[in-house]
Fold:
Amino acid sequence: MNPIKSAALAAITLAIATPGFAQTPAAGHPPAGQPSAGGPLANDGPYAGTSRQDFYQPAERIEQIQAEIKQGALAGPSAHRAMAQLSAIRQELKYRIARHNGDLRDWDRELINQKLDALVKQYPALRT
Structure:
């Protein structure tokens, strides 16, 4: 390796590894890699409109919507259509999990949650 490149690489490595160069978090913000306790931007980002737990549990959300339909939130043809849509969403969830060897990717999770949001919006009697 070129001695100049080696020296530059060593200087960069030393600068990164030196604690004096580490940035301290701004006042009121948690250190990098730690969840925020909330604040003005707490509802922004990938979890906007839902809690982090709901975002990561689409299967549980499907079960919750199904339970509401079975408990009578919808009746007659509306209930049958909603259950058919929910079944299709459940099948897509299974497909997307199987596609990545049992791992549900974030973009797939977001897509499933968008479909569940559309279903709930279509039938306002569903509260989830």
Observations:
- Helices lie at 3-17, 52-56, 58-73, 76-99, 106-122.
- The radius of gyration is 23 Å.
- Residues 76-99 form the longest helix (24 residues).
- Residues 72-128 form one domain.
